[in-house]
Specification:
Blueprint lengths: L7 E5 L6 E5 L25 E4 L3 E7 L9 E11 L2 E10 L2 E10 L7 E6 L7 E9 L2 E8 L12 E6 L5 E6 L1 H6 L8 E4 L5 E4 L6 E5 L5 E6 L7 E2 L3 E2 L5 E7 L4 E7 L5 E7 L6 E6 L2 E6 L2 E6 L5 E6 L11 E5 L5 E6 L4 E7 L7 E7 L4 H16 L4 E7 L11 H7 L6 E4 L1 H9 L12 H6 L9 E2 L2 E2 L1 E2 L4 E8 L10 H10 L5 E3 L8 H10 L10 E2 L4 E2 L6 H11 L9 H11 L3 E6 L4 H11 L3 E3 L11 E3 L3 E4 L5 H14 L2 H4 L17 E4 L4 E5 L5 E4 L7 H12 L1 E2 L4 H15 L5 H19 L1
Parallel strand pairs: 3-25, 29-30, 29-31, 36-39, 41-46
Antiparallel strand pairs: 1-2, 1-5, 4-28, 5-6, 6-7, 7-8, 9-10, 10-11, 11-12, 13-14, 14-15, 15-16, 17-19, 18-19, 19-20, 20-21, 22-23, 23-24, 24-25, 26-27, 27-28, 31-42, 32-33, 34-42, 35-39, 35-40, 35-41, 37-38, 43-44, 44-45
Helix pairs in contact: 8-15, 14-15
Length: about 775
């Protein structure tokens, strides 16, 4: 094992303390920090983000979980090892000992070497470790006395034990008096070291203070934020020369500054990012600084001020970038270590495209929450295939559904497009009608089909053949006033009848949007109906419109009377809607894109006065599933690629992959229960969105009734295949009536004529 370690990136944590730093052995000439002369006292050139580079991750392999080491992992370090490889050092605590666990990670996929060194010669009685750091081939262990019995107060002693790479103690420094001399009263939340031997402690009170102690334990310098304005000190970043920089968020200005201690023991503001809170800083080498902002990795050339977005985390299968370590070697190569809860892997980041055995291309023409998920899933699948299958995506958003306006769709029709398309339902139908899509029955394994929610497959059915698959869903339902209506489902006739029977009714719906206007009410009443086989206004069997015969004039009159409100907006909508339902002024509360957490909240908020019946429908309960897009396969895909395609589909519909859907619902049965966790000691139920975020769920009496009800809605919901043209015709032609320019009967007859023309041309 090499005993020269450079550019160490450290993540160290215990008692919920997360330390994330980068370090490297200091060169002989400390002033040779960058290739050009820069006056550090004047700070960096600021500049703006000027370019976006779509860098890729490749040369990766999965890192199996460590089964042999028992104890808590309290520190992680990323260490260079040799050409195209590096080591990860983990420190585990078990009883009174520490295990040093090294694993050489070869980028080319060679078998890693694993070994452990156990050292405890410097352990002291009745002490516990609270800090860890590493720099210049040395480890720094912060240990407090009293066995950690004092939870917040400054302990009797805080020792910094400096060891060599084998764990042999070289020096012990008691920093307790130095901290006290600087006004520190509570246990710090983090400790870091620089190349000059100084120790930096982050204060425990909301991370608003910094304390600097010299190598002998003497207090040197203090920094205190203006805590009343929301200031905060974030975890620091180190350069390859051992200098350390602390990001400080200035709440009053809304800026993030980089603070450092100069050779004269004075604080210097090195740079300022205006109007931005940037918390995650990774590493710095020479004049290149790397940090995360807006789900992207930013590379900042501090000489020129040029900042570039070089990597999108989510699109590369990294949902949480705070579980990342980076290092840059002397050649400027960037390496990434991801250690998320679900998967762990290493990768080289590069602009160069690798060569794969098989390649699949995906054309994306929609926008929405599932697109980001899909891109990340494609990247993760590539890693899991061990470099055997490459999946590349291309985007061309089709804001207009006209197939002629999107080059990806044109290429698909002409047989020279992407292997797979992710398209809107309307474009999906157009592509299939032109013979551009492959029938998928043989490519979707039966065990995958069996795992799907009922009706999901019908999204992609055209004339009893299967051409497309959704990857995420939204649930649409309406909560109805139980004091006015107690049925299990309702129709347009029910709405009209209830409006006549309840004189106090002032509005049909109280919306969760800024304003409930005529068109929103009309859409809620008939919009979903128009997309179903059992529609009250369209006879789909004979392909004829029947708005006049079905009494649409009465619907128009009701909407005009009760369909306008400007009183409610923002978070007040739900409370105001509840109040209007309690007083029987409102009939229902529409809920589009209803996720389990929001459903749980509404059930708790409404109680017994409102329950989910769904939208008005004919002969069934009007709860609906929608999807932003469908995956479809080119009719011209080669036989060689079909096997890779099968593997991709199998992965996309695994529980592991579907758990990455943060803003949409999984297509799998029972998926909501994988996100629910019960903490017995707190007697609370939590919802996990697939990241490290947990949301407390309001509980019914048995703690699960709300979710059981939600799951029942999912499993019985109808598939809504969006055809906006029909609803668009109705809304357009209704405007003259709402404006008082035409009668309801004239408008209804005009709608029947236009709808019939559309049906004749398209069905």
């Amino acid at each position: 094992m090499s005993k020269k370690y450079h550019n160490i990136l450290a993540i160290a944590g215990i008692f919920c303390i997360l330390l994330f730093t980068g370090c490297q052995k200091l060169d002989n000439d400390k002033n040779a920090i960058i290739s050009k002369n820069v006056d550090w006292t004047q700070g960096f050139v600021r500049g703006d983000i000027t370019a976006v580079h779509e860098m890729s991750l490749y040369d990766y392999f999965t890192d199996e979980k460590d089964e042999k080491i028992k104890g808590e992992c309290v520190a992680r370090f990323l260490l260079p090892f040799g050409e195209n490889s590096y080591e990860e050092l983990k420190i585990y605590q078990s009883e009174n000992s520490y295990h040093y666990y090294f694993k050489e990670q070869a980028i080319d996929g060679a078998t890693p070497s694993v070994y452990s060194i156990e050292k405890n010669e410097w352990d002291m009685e009745d002490t516990v470790p609270i800090f860890f750091d590493a720099l210049d081939d040395k480890f720094y262990f912060g240990i407090e006395s009293n066995g950690g019995k004092q939870k917040l107060a400054l302990p009797e002693h805080i020792y910094i034990i400096i060891t060599d790479i084998d764990g042999h103690s070289e020096k012990t420094v008691d920093v307790k008096e130095g901290l006290e001399s600087l006004g520190c009263k509570n246990r710090p939340s983090g400790m870091y070291t620089d190349s000059d031997g100084y120790f930096y402690f982050m204060g425990s009170e909301e991370n608003t203070t910094l304390y600097v102690i010299d190598s002998e334990g003497k207090g040197i310098l203090t920094y205190e934020c203006k805590s009343q304005s929301g200031d905060c000190v974030f975890k620091p970043v180190r350069d390859n020369h051992g200098r350390i920089f602390f990001p400080i968020f200035c709440g009053e200005e809304g800026d993030t500054i980089l603070l450092w201690k100069d050779q004269n023991n004075s604080w210097k503001e090195l740079t300022r990012l205006e109007n931005r809170m940037v918390m995650d800083w990774y590493t710095m080498r020479d004049n290149l600084l790397f940090y995360a902002e807006n789900d992207s990795l930013i590379r900042w050339d501090v000489l020129t001020g040029n900042r570039e977005c070089i990597l999108n985390f989510k699109e590369n299968g990294i949902p949480e970038y705070w579980y990342c370590m980076f290092r840059v070697d002397e050649n400027g190569e960037l390496y990434l270590r991801n250690y998320g809860e679900e998967t762990e892997w290493f990768a080289k980041v590069s602009l160069e495209a690798p060569v794969y055995e098989n390649s699949l291309t995906v054309g994306i023409t929609v926008e929405g929450n599932t697109v980001s998920f899909l891109k990340g899933a494609l990247a993760t699948f590539g890693r899991k295939s061990n470099n055997s299958i490459q999946v590349q995506h291309t985007e061309a958003h089709a804001h207009d559904s006209d197939i002629g306006e999107n080059h990806l769709l044109i290429d698909a029709v002409n047989g020279r497009g992407a292997d797979i398309m992710y398209v809107s339902y309307q474009d999906f139908v157009n592509l299939q009608s032109k013979g551009a899509l492959l029938e998928l029955s043989e490519l979707i394994p039966e065990d995958v089909k069996e795992k799907l929610l009922p009706n999901v497959l019908s999204f992609g059915m055209i004339k009893e053949e299967f051409y497309g698959m959704p990857i995420g869903l939204d649930l649409h339902t309406m909560f109805v006033n139980s004091q006015i209506y107690d049925g299990s489902g309702w129709s347009i006739e029910d709405v009209l009848r209830l409006a006549k029977e309840n004189a106090q009714l002032q509005c049909i719906i109280t919306a969760d949007t800024e304003n409930a206007v005529y068109y929103e009410v009309l859409s809620a009443l008939i919009g979903y109906d128009l997309g179903q086989e059992k529609s009250c206004f369209i006879d789909w069997e004979s392909k004829t419109g029947c708005f006049e015969a079905a009494g649409f004039t009465d619907v128009l009159e009701l909407v005009k009377k009760t369909g306008f409100s400007t009183e409610y907006s923002g978070n007040e909508d739900i409370e105001s809607g509840r109040d209007r339902i309690v007083t029987k002024e409102a009939l229902g509360f529409p809920c589009n894109a209803c996720n389990p957490v929001f459903f749980n909240y509404l059930m708790n908020e409404f109680g017994d006065i409102c329950y989910p019946v769904g939208y008005p429908a004919e002969d069934y309960q009007g709860n609906y599933l929608t999807t932003e897009g469908l995956l479809a396969v080119s009719a011209n895909i080669s036989e060689e690629k079909k096997e890779a395609l099968k593997q991709l589909f199998e992965y996309l519909f695994t529980s592991e992959c579907q758990k990455g859907l943060h803003d949409s619902l999984s297509v799998l049965k029972g998926s909501i229960w994988e996100h629910i966790e019960y903490e017995e000691h707190m007697d609370k139920t939590y919802w996990s969105d697939g990241t490290s975020s947990y949301i407390v769920l309001w509980q019914s009496e048995d703690g699960s009734a709300y979710m059981n009800m939600y799951e029942e809605l999912l499993e019985n919901a109808q598939v809504y295949k969006v055809d906006n043209k029909l609803l668009q015709i109705v809304l357009e032609e209704s405007i003259p009536f709402f404006m008082g320019d035409r009668s309801a009967l004239d408008v209804t007859r005009k709608i029947d004529n236009r709808v019939q023309l559309y049906l004749d041309e398209n069905y």
